[in-house]
């Protein structure tokens, strides 16, 4: 990319051809160095699948969250300048299959968190949003059903979904089993679902953090510290998690040399990019919480 003018190297502006800078303010950087020079945030890379080799000026004031992929290093000054401007920073796996942050820096805004807390604290609203989530998952409206009834329906519908997707990929499905103490003793299809679920939950972690919602305040899940993240991940269980899991499981059953976790991680990264998964999750979160399109963006 030409460096002839100030804007020519600013990711997300003249660099609109770069696929991982989108309207939600998500900026994906990998295989390079992020540092500060003369008060400007700079990303230098020798080149990758997403970027041509070069030095890019980062418009961090216009970014909600910078996601650092594999092979990326940062300087202390980067943390200082992002914290000052309320820009989030997290390390992620390729394509968003892992989410590492300790902890995320604040955005300087609380409107999404306050909206989330208000809806969660109102039992009528909390149940309405839970029903909406079930409606998204099962493509059917449930205006009058109570949540306990819907939870009962959920189990039966998910069992049928497992059967249908397994059949599509030629998997002999014996039911969902998970030994938490010895996860490697599960059969290959169940191991695959465990790995795929972890990666989709990581994508949901990114989306929840980018918007500034509250992970512990779930509308369907209740006890987990990331209950809302699990709510969002479950919206994609049938469309993404199960096809990802069973497609790789089918390959692993035919080829014992397939390293299951690694293969699913690589496949997940490709699917997340192809489906634009994290931006779609962000749109879902904003729709569920009734926040406008600028609430989570810087």
Automatic annotation (TrEMBL):
Cofactor: Mg(2+); Mn(2+)
A Pfam family per the record: Cas_Cas1
Molecular functions (GO terms): DNA binding; DNA endonuclease activity; hydrolase activity; metal ion binding
Binding site residues for Mn(2+): 154, 221, 234
Keyword Metal-binding attributed: yes
Keywords noted in UniProt: Antiviral defense, DNA-binding, Endonuclease, Hydrolase, Magnesium, Manganese, Metal-binding, Nuclease
One BP annotation, GO: defense response to virus
EC number annotated for this UniProt entry: 3.1.-.-
Gene3D superfamilies, sorted: CRISPR-associated endonuclease Cas1, C-terminal domain, CRISPR-associated endonuclease Cas1, N-terminal domain
The family this protein is said to belong to: Belongs to the CRISPR-associated endonuclease Cas1 family.
Subunit structure: Homodimer, forms a heterotetramer with a Cas2 homodimer.
Function: CRISPR (clustered regularly interspaced short palindromic repeat), is an adaptive immune system that provides protection against mobile genetic elements (viruses, transposable elements and conjugative plasmids). CRISPR clusters contain spacers, sequences complementary to antecedent mobile elements, and target invading nucleic acids. CRISPR clusters are transcribed and processed into CRISPR RNA (crRNA). Acts as a dsDNA endonuclease. Involved in the integration of spacer DNA into the CRISPR cassette.
HAMAP family: Cas1
NCBIfam families assigned to the protein according to its UniProt record, in alphabetical order: cas1_ECOLI
Protein name, as recorded: CRISPR-associated endonuclease Cas1
Organism listed in the record: Brockia lithotrophica
